Amino acid sequence: MAMIINGRELANEIDGQTKIEVEKLSHEGLIPHLVVILVGEDEASQIYVRNKHKRAESLGIKSTIIRMPVNSSEEELLIKISDLNKDKDVHAILVQLPLPEQINEQRIIEAISPNKDADGFSPINVGKLSSGETYHLPIACTPMGIMEMFKKYSIDLDGKNAVVVGRSNIVGKPMANLLLNENATVTIAHSHTKNITNIIKQADILVVATGIAHFIKKDQVKIGATVIDVGMDRDENGKLTGDVDFEGVKSIASFITPVPKGVGPMTISMLMKQTVNLAKWSI
Ligand code: GUN
């Protein structure tokens, strides 16, 4: 039976450390400041943004939400980002995705200063990560949270077969680079991959980010594997569930993350930690 990785508990532990760090910085006159830009009224995005704001405030981080109407132009958003890039009081900028269709997401991500890149999505930072550079480097928060889990549970990555299912810029690609930097042998599988089950079955470390409920079943998983589920899906009854059939897979894995209380809580904690890091690196 697998050991269940408790993301909620680890996130609380990291938040505790972040709070102490913020108190220390505040005594030195530095209050970390995160600005989140929300364009439009997407319901899920509003919830995410509210949760980030609440978490920041609870840790003593200054949090500002800038709301822009759904019909905002790319130009208007670029001007806003340019202002924030220049503002010495702002340490971290996050533009909530997805954006309305008239706005080119990549152009917006590229406009955020790499030194204020709360998400770690800037091409400069993505390039540094893939070059193995680590100094003062913001990293995508979800994969960074997963790396914290490996560390906390002493899960060795060196020389292991790691399979990442999903190739998004937010999770799959940065996850693969982080695993590679820790000397894992990394395969990225995705919707066009042939014989995906054979590849998945080789994984000592399996990270799944497909957005398909219960995509991974017990008979596809290597006995003793570590299984990390990034999914936030709905089952047929509308209940929150993951990309992995947790009940089946937990009987053969050595470590597994549940949904909820797995990867999810870690992502915001990493964003907070990263905001504090960006503030520290700014001086
Ligand atoms: N929308 C869903 N996930 C994310 C994320 O990690 N960062 C941003 N900026 N938007 C998102």
TrEMBL record:
It catalyses: (6R)-5,10-methylene-5,6,7,8-tetrahydrofolate + NADP(+) = (6R)-5,10-methenyltetrahydrofolate + NADPH; (6R)-5,10-methenyltetrahydrofolate + H2O = (6R)-10-formyltetrahydrofolate + H(+). GO terms for molecular function: methenyltetrahydrofolate cyclohydrolase activity; methylenetetrahydrofolate dehydrogenase (NADP+) activity. This is Bifunctional protein FolD. One of its GO terms (biological process) is purine nucleotide biosynthetic process. Belongs to the tetrahydrofolate dehydrogenase/cyclohydrolase family. Keywords: Amino-acid biosynthesis, Histidine biosynthesis, Hydrolase, Methionine biosynthesis, Multifunctional enzyme, NADP, One-carbon metabolism, Oxidoreductase, Purine biosynthesis. It comes from Pediococcus claussenii (strain ATCC BAA-344 / DSM 14800 / JCM 18046 / KCTC 3811 / LMG 21948 / P06). Pathway: One-carbon metabolism; tetrahydrofolate interconversion. The gene is folD.
